[in-house]
Design a protein that fits this description.
- There is one protein chain.
- It contains 5 helices and 8 strands; from the N terminus they run ββαααβββαβαββ.
- The chain is an alpha+beta fold.
- It has a single domain, classed as Gcn5-related N-acetyltransferase (GNAT) (Aminopeptidase), CATH 3.40.630.
- An 8-stranded mixed β-sheet has the order 1-2-3-4-5-6-8-7, with helices on both faces.
- α4 links the parallel β5 and β6.
- The longest helix is centred in the C-terminal third of the chain and has 16 residues.
- The protein is globular and about 45 Å long.
- It starts with 6 loop residues before the first strand and ends with a strand.
- InterPro entries: Acyl_CoA_acyltransferase, GNAT_dom.
Length: 178
């Protein structure tokens, strides 16, 4: 199974493996995404980026060699605007699991997310992948809209609490066929 390159580009972005010197900056970026906890019920991980580099955020039976965390920067100005973490080969060999994708709030609505997903889809098609999967909090309506617009039109499953309340949470696994 082939993996995403350690560095690749889209029209306005460069995506590359996270280097140790980027940990602090990317952790601050990750911390700005924590408004999502009201939708997913997760606690803020103050060492998320460091842990991802050192041990990955792996699926059951996963291995670190198949995990990758990458920064997303603008080609013009080299500004860090986001990050991407993926697992190659879960739940099947030719499936990429998108563990986390986040674009900085202040640059959302500038089509960086759509550009990122288009470039990722192109990369994965070249590498021979069949599909991309992502797990999204059901309460995260902006993300659900984004992923649907990005071609994630199949449902792999719904997981979590069965009843709705402010203290209950559930996720939906979305699938994009390539």
């Amino acid at each position: 199974m082939k993996h995403l390159p350690s560095s690749w580009k889209s029209e306005r972005l460069i995506i590359s493996d996270v280097k140790p010197f980027e940990i602090v900056e990317l952790q601050k970026l990750y911390d700005t995404s924590r408004y999502i906890q009201e939708w997913d019920g997760q606690e803020n991980d103050i060492n998320y980026v460091k842990n991802c580099i050192e041990q990955g955020n792996l699926p059951p039976g996963g291995i670190l060699a198949n995990y990758r965390i990458q920064s997303i920067r603008t080609l013009e100005g080299n500004q860090t605007i986001g990050m991407l973490s993926v697992y190659h080969g879960y739940p099947a060999e030719h499936v990429l699991y998108l563990e986390f994708l986040y674009i900085r709030n202040v640059v959302q609505k500038q089509r960086y997310g759509q550009e990122m997903m288009s470039a990722l889809t192109n990369q994965l098609t070249i590498l021979g992948y069949d599909e991309i999967r992502i797990n999204v909090a059901l309460k995260n309506w902006p993300a659900l809209r984004f992923w649907f617009r990005s071609g994630f039109s199949q449902i792999g499953g719904i997981y979590g609490d069965e009843k709705h309340s402010s203290n209950n949470f559930a996720n939906i696994e979305l699938i994009k066929k390539l």
